[in-house]
């Protein structure tokens, strides 16, 4: 990081020196240590029991002083004493007032401070040293093109592409906003002395994305030492994390849990997250994962819809639909689909109005009622033709799901190139299998819903009005 071949590897510090850093800065260890799990060294460092532990009978396993939490609130406090950090946050404007913007910019500055080539930049703080202990994560944004091609047909492929585009926009925003700051121009952007590259921004993003936790009272943040703990879901989760009344971070063994010396202390990164999100944010899947759990498929308004431009203009919801598995049953949900399936004959209307400043904008109406696209489903549920709208939706979604299935099936038997690494190959293969199984189940659900809706009185009446025995194209 922060290198053009001159400072390769500067970010690394031996993990066995982390306890010294932690204790010096007030982190309290109680029956645990941080290091590689014996026999699983390839997984990196984690939190390990140092002696017999039993939930409910031990004090917090870790207590992290609130000053060490990498949160937006703490970064704003640090900026009061660090003019370089303050300059950065002010320069990037609204982005610097978001948690993500503040944390990523802070991490990049700490990396800059650590670089041997920089002088008199930033104020040293305990977290400057901490980031040296954080390993690089092989997230899909770092997969090669050949490795990303293995994701064709999965929901991860467009997610990675969108993320890379987003990261590039952020990077260009950062560059534009800071290139007039003298020290940034010299150490970041100058053709000869500048050291920051887009890859550095990607690494900072991966560092944050793979370690961010939502702590009560602190929001999304990085919690030193706690963020070394690995993930396990369900009953396998050994510990919980929270903050105490003073805002300090705590790692607590779950009630009833017993961990022998050398056992791993795991936390959950979110049991409800699907296979795609786990690979996207953390770069792994648990061995026990048997379902993709949730998928989001994009959805477009048909090009022959005369209202397509207006619908796109007024829509405030994500253009797609969510397929999910819950209690062994597969279902779907979407706010966008309802805007796709209704038309002018149903009662949808658009009007152009002029604003106070003289600009013109399009306003949507549903049967003379001003339309909020996030509440469209509620409006349609009150309509006598609700079953007709549902049928149109299920037909359209079934077509979209079947198209996705076809794409995934074309990837079956994909050959492995010599340059493709083990982790991307294994993860892509597992994800394709899991998502294909969920899609097949979704087709079955949609077919059942479609058959039921066809028998409804409203649909039968609509079929009669539409032309008796003629086949109706509900899409």
Question: Gist?
Answer:
40% of the residues lie in helices and 14% in strands.
Characterise this structure:
The strands form 6 sheets. The chain has a 4-stranded antiparallel β-sheet, with no helix packed on it. A 3-stranded antiparallel β-sheet has the order 11-12-13, covered by helices on one side. The chain has a 3-stranded antiparallel β-sheet with strand order 14-15-16, with helices on one face. The model is unreliable at 1-10 (pLDDT under 50). The protein starts with 17 loop residues before the first helix and ends in an 8-residue tail after the last helix. α14 (386-410) packs antiparallel against α15 (422-454). With 475 residues, the chain is an alpha+beta fold. Helices cover 40% and strands 14% of the residues. The radius of gyration is 26 Å and the shape is globular. The longest helix is centred in the last third of the chain and has 33 residues, at 422-454. It folds into 2 domains: 15-259, set domain protein methyltransferase, domain 1; 290-467. It is built from 16 helices and 16 strands.
Q: Can you tell me the number of structural domains?
A: 2
Give the number of helices. 16
What CATH architecture of the largest domain do you see?
A: Alpha-Beta Complex
As residue ranges, the low-confidence spans are 1-10
Overall mean pLDDT stands at 89
Q: Could you give a short account of the major beta sheet?
A: 4 strands, antiparallel
Radius of gyration (Å): 26 Å
Shape: globular
State the separation between the terminal residues, measured CA to CA.
51 Å
Q: Please identify which CATH superfamily of the largest domain we are dealing with.
A: set domain protein methyltransferase, domain 1
CATH domain class of the largest domain = Alpha Beta
**Percent of residues in helices:** 25-40%
What's the CATH topology name of the largest domain?
set domain protein methyltransferase, domain 1
Strand order of the largest sheet: 1-5-9-8
Strand percentage lies at 5-15%
Specify the structural class.
alpha+beta
Number of strands: 16
